[in-house]
Design a protein that fits this description.
This protein is mainly alpha-helical. The chain is 83% helix and 0% strand. The protein has 10 helices and no strands. α1 runs antiparallel to α2, α4 runs antiparallel to α10 and α6 crosses α9. The radius of gyration is 20 Å and the shape is elongated. It starts with a helix and ends with a helix. 35% of the residues are buried.
């Protein structure tokens, strides 16, 4: 006999306390509200990256395998949730704006105004690829919405790219959960490794950047 969705969430809670609370919360939303509940969970995940899509999406796929909702409903609502959450962060970037970004940037140590100008130029050339492909990179998939808003990428373009990239990402994880059944939590373990690798690379890149800047300033003073 297949486990119910709540039973699967309870078992995850017993096995892994840090993710158990999130799994139980997401399971409750999906059981109570179906597709819209899954969409709401993913919208919040986009705004608050610590909420892991690698738990929410496979869990939604498992729910679909148990008949709680259909695959079509799962993909529609989770993609809509991704777009809604991304638009919220886009709005944050748009409200913050380029002028405030330059003022804030100028107050930071170890950075130059020219660095921000180059970053803006890079985003102007590659922003569409970054928004589309970034939806499939853990952590980065949420953060990329902010510079898109700062740079005022046309909203229809931003929404279309976000929907396309999110649909692909959501489909992979939802279908994985659907096919794995009560082993859906295996997906989170593998994607979690990727998330940690992305964060580690970001930290290394930041450390390298700071090191170069410090050495550059020391040479300038000598």
């Amino acid at each position: 006999m297949h486990l119910t969705l709540s039973a699967a969430a309870h078992r995850l809670s017993a096995a892994s306390e840090p993710q158990g609370g999130i799994a139980g919360w997401a399971a409750g939303l999906v059981e109570t509200f179906g597709g819209p509940g899954a969409g709401a969970a993913i919208a919040l995940e986009n705004v608050f990256p610590p909420l892991p899509s690698e738990v929410i999406l496979p869990l939604t796929g498992f729910a679909a395998s148990q008949g709680v909702l259909s695959i079509a409903s799962a993909l529609f609502w989770t993609t809509l949730g991704s777009v809604v959450g991304a638009v919220v962060l886009y709005g944050v970037g748009a409200v913050f704006g380029r002028e405030r970004m330059h003022v804030w940037w100028a107050k930071l140590p170890l950075v130059k105004a020219s660095d921000l100008v180059r970053t803006e130029a890079w985003f102007a050339r590659h922003g569409t690829k970054a928004v589309l492909l970034g939806r499939m990179v853990p952590v980065f998939r949420s953060l990329i919405s902010v510079p898109a808003g700062v740079e005022r990428m046309p909203l229809p373009v931003f929404v279309a790219l976000t929907a396309a990239g999110s649909l692909l990402w959501n489909t992979v994880l939802v279908m994985a959960g659907y096919l794995l059944g009560d082993q859906w939590d295996v997906v989170g373990a593998y994607v979690g490794v990727v998330s940690k690798a992305v964060l580690a690379l970001a930290v290394l890149a930041l450390a390298g950047y700071v090191t170069v800047r410090v050495r550059s300033r020391r040479r300038g003073k000598s």
